[in-house]
Fold Protein downstream neighbor of Son.
Amino acid sequence: AASAVPGYSPGFKKPPAMLRLKRKRLRRSEPAAAAPPPCGAAPRAPSAPARRNPFSSLDNAPRAAGTPQPRERGRRPPAGGSPSAAPFWQVGPSPGLAVAGGFSSRDEDLHLPVAVPKVPSSPRREFPADWSIKTRLLFMSSQPFTWAEHLKAQEEAQGFAQHCRATETNLPQSIQEPKLSTELRCAFQQNLVYWLHPSLPWLQLFPRIGADRKIAGKACPWSQDEALQQVLMSDWSVSFTSLYNLLKAKLCPYFYICTYQFTVLFRAAGLAGSDVITAVISPTTRGLREAMRNEGIEFSLPLVEESRTRKQKNSEVNLETEGANSLQAGNSMEDGEEPAPSDDDDDESFSWLEEMGVQDKVKKPDALSIKLRKEKHEVQMDHKPESLALVKGTNTFTLLNFLINCKSLVAVAGPQAGLPPTLLSPVAFRGGTMQTLKARSINAKARVHLAYEDIFSLEIVGPVMPHSLHSLTTLLKSAQGGAFSAVLYTHEPTAVFNTNLDNASPALNKETVCKDLPTCGLHPKTLDQLSQSPALGKSSIRFLEMKDYAYTWKS
């Protein structure tokens, strides 16, 4: 009976029949309707009725007049994120923006990695320190970023000199002609500089976690040469030791060690609310933690302890509630009734078996079983943010020696085999190479309330460290008249570095601890921000906006 139905195609094996059926139905239901042709298509003849593509979803149905038609063909999905993420022009100060045209050839990959959160903060004059490493920044403004383009050779050289000499640059609140401001352009170049080791121009050395694809196929002569690996690691150890000595002398505020498995952040005393040198490692594994314990390194797991404390508080509240309920039930019990035994305490949970005389007949968990149960819980948090390890004070020097001699610090197989970890620092160090973040400006036309407006954006690509994020936003505050927004792309394994570790001592004298930090090479306002206790938790800033010289952010 089904085969007698006209146009029937079982299993959709005959698409033409289905197409004819769709077309006939559409003609009967909308004999005179004519939808506007898509952007760039030739106008349809007046007599030809419009029909919908049967392979398209309902979202792709013909739109009403005045509604902008999105690009369908040739559109690339968002880089490193969800396909549903909004493009950059829809996340700016005007939420109703929709692209209508006027793209440059470099706009093809400008999409958000994740959807922007919906809960913003209250406006403030400063945003909290973000200790995660950003891989990309996308600033947007209604004013052009032409001042950041085509720096003159003298401006570029002056910017490098200002960075090396740690020159403090203080710009006015608003710059009338940013393109003509040599001071602004030199400061922009100054804030793009960072220091890296090792320097292998044909390899992308950040990020290292999950970078096997990008490194695979590249020339790696050390992968099978043990002598060359020893030379690279010896050179790396010298650079690592140099950075630690600078940190201890408060001549370097912080630095990162990026391995193929985990990242380490060393911070000088006085930063992140701590009065001693700290090192945070994430993510960690049970094997790494056991190796650190065997080397005598004292460390803590702040997020695990926080979770345990929270559970204990909840248990105490539940016990109090149960106790009150038990007392109430006991008052109403008949004589001779006894409450059920409790097994909350591992040491006393089996005492009632002895009273009954059956303790030898019931199998109790031995010490090994209890240990395995605890180890299972410990292994479950491996490679997760909860495995964050904190090392403080003199133990950081022991950690230095441990990392230099740690065999698992370098991959033994795969594309990263034999390649030393990446060192990232805001200041120069022995063996470090000066690098600059990549910057480019992008222009687009956007349709807002039936009119076209210019949307200008500035893209910064590279390992953007906390001090760079603050200094760049300070520059833009002056150059863009206190109005801009930014989408921040976070290297996710480092987002957990924003956890508040409660390092501050009750008798901490901030002036004494931060006395020598002004010589570390950072701007005083940036240093003041980084000295505050982290306030973002395990998250990081994803979206930052400034209006009337006040910040709001979303994480």
